[in-house]
Amino acid sequence: MSNSAVATSASPVAATPATVEKKVVQKKASGSGKAKKATATPSHPPTQQMVDASIKNLKERGGSSLLAIKKYITATYKCDAQKLAPFIKKYLKSAVVNGKLIRTKGKGASGSFKLSASAKKDKDPKGKS
């Protein structure tokens, strides 16, 4: 009788880790399903194209300010400029370094920006062909 008592007490203990493992596996499987969720494609063009178009179409003699660029993007592309603000600032800084834009006033992403002469020349042949 003592052997049967030991056997019955051992079997529930052995069954418990197996059920715990099954639960862990199920949780991992459900978590990986969320990671595979597809992201929606944005309805607007890339930030680079939006900023270049805004500077070109605003045609301000002293250059277009960050605020004017954001307002143009919001009005034209119907997207939230506050959400795109870090991307716009990053592009403005990198474009000045690359020589695509010229900063006429200010420092960093604040200030006014114009398209450089080389950027204007590059855009014309692409538009004609």
From TrEMBL:
Keywords for this protein: Chromosome, DNA-binding, Nucleus
Superkingdom assignment: Eukaryota
Keyword DNA-binding part of the UniProt annotation: yes
Annotated ranges, domain H15: 43-117
Extent of Low complexity compositional bias: 1-19, 27-41
Compartments (UniProt record): Chromosome; Nucleus
Region described as Disordered: spans on this chain: 1-51, 105-129
Biased composition (Basic and acidic residues): 119-129
Molecular function via GO: double-stranded DNA binding; nucleosomal DNA binding; structural constituent of chromatin
Similarity comment text for this entry: Belongs to the histone H1/H5 family.
Protein purpose: Histones H1 are necessary for the condensation of nucleosome chains into higher-order structures.
Name listed for the protein in its UniProt record: GM17850
Organism of derivation: Drosophila sechellia
Gene assigned in the entry: Dsec\GM17850
